[in-house]
Amino acid sequence: MENKFAIAIHGGAGTILQSEMTPEKEEQYKQDLMFALNRGYDILKSGGDAVSAVEAAVSALEDSALFNAGKGAVFNAQGEHEMDASIMEGKNREAGAVAAVKGLKNPIQLARKVMEKSEHVFLVGDGAEIFAKQFDLPFMDKEYFHDEFRYQQWLSIKDTDNFQLDHSVDKEKKFGTVGAVALDMTGNLAAATSTGGMTNKKYGRIGDSSIIGAGTYANNNTCAISCTGSGEFFIRGVVAYDVSCLMELQGLSLHDAAEQVIQKRLMEINGDGGLIGVDQKGNFVLSFNTEGMYRGAGSYNTQPFVDIYK
Ligand code: ASP
After folding, report:
1. 193-229, pLDDT tens digit by residue?
2. Å from CA of 178 to ligand 1 middle
3. Could you tell me if residue 236 is left (phi over 0), alpha (psi between -120 and 50 degrees) or otherwise beta?
4. Are 276 and 295 in contact (CB under 8 A)?
5. Per DSSP, what are the bridge partners of residue 273?
6. What is the C-alpha separation between 123 and 113, in angstroms, rounded?
7. Do the bridges between strand 122-124 and strand 95-101 make them parallel or antiparallel, or are there none, so unpaired?
């Protein structure tokens, strides 16, 4: 196990078609993915820990306007940005999560504070923001989160009961959560996920991204997993934990467990999306049942790479 390390990231899955993409836009996505991947990869390569690697990679994706998390978070029914995030480490299975937080530049960093600096696992809304203010975590004004494309997307459904996954109009169905999973050289695993959820969401809707076991899970005996997709199905399928269970109880490999969950068990309940995973041997997996998933990975024996389409 020693000296092996691996990292994988995602920036959301969905109907991402090359025919809908300009070369410039594709290049931008790849650049931002590679930047985030390298931030985590460099930490691991120089002997850093898995939690810091996933936090750094997810923070970089939150800082990009291209993905539905942090700066690029979608608009909710009130025209605001409510964000969910969670993080977990595999050694002691400690975890931290926040949901429906506003204004925070990097919700994943708050999730890490919940894990390390509180007695709790899951904080929501105003309470989570009050907790955040004890630390040096940056808050940004509304302008920072304003993205014209997402604003127009919201305006088109704002006075209806519709809500949609990021860009999930028929021709471009795409989920926009971001996530990272990592194995460090000491054999520890970690997973992190962050999202703005669904455009025009209301009633305090929260998806799988901040739910430990659904959108995020890490256990040194099995794997670290971060998911993206239609959150309601990932919650019902307890997807991240399901992969871990198939490995632990049925002895499946990371690859086979992930594929069974995404291509079979999730599809049985009509769920679509994908996940990324790593195990303690330095293997990684990038599974999805959609047209594409923004993704990337690298390890002790694989140069960092990024990809978008099936
Ligand atoms: N899973 C996220 C949610 O339901 C959305 C996504 O992955 O795009 O909130």
Report:
1. 999 998 888 899 999 999 999 999 999 999 999 999 9
2. 9
3. alpha
4. yes
5. 229
6. 11
7. parallel
On average, the pLDDT of the chain sits at 93
Tokens found for residue 87: 């993080």
The domain ranges of the chain are: 6-309
Select from 3.40.50.300, 3.60.20.30, 2.130.10.10, 3.50.50.60 the CATH code of 6-309: 3.60.20.30
Per DSSP bridges, beta strands 292-299 and 95-101 are unpaired
Mutate to test the pocket of ligand 1, among 101, 198, 201 (most ligand atoms within 8 A of CB): 198
150-156 contacts at long range (C-beta below 8 A, 24 or more positions apart): 150/68, 150/72, 150/74, 150/75, 150/199, 151/75, 153/74, 153/75, 153/199, 154/74, 154/75, 154/79, 154/199, 154/200
The binding-site residues of ligand 1, defined as CB within 6 angstroms of any ligand atom, are 12, 68, 165-166, 175-177, 195, 197-198, 207-209, 228-229, 231, 234
Task: Say what the pTM is.
Answer: 0.95
* pLDDT tens-digit readout, 126-171: 999 999 999 989 999 999 998 888 888 788 888 777 766 664 544 4
d(CA 106, CA 71): 8
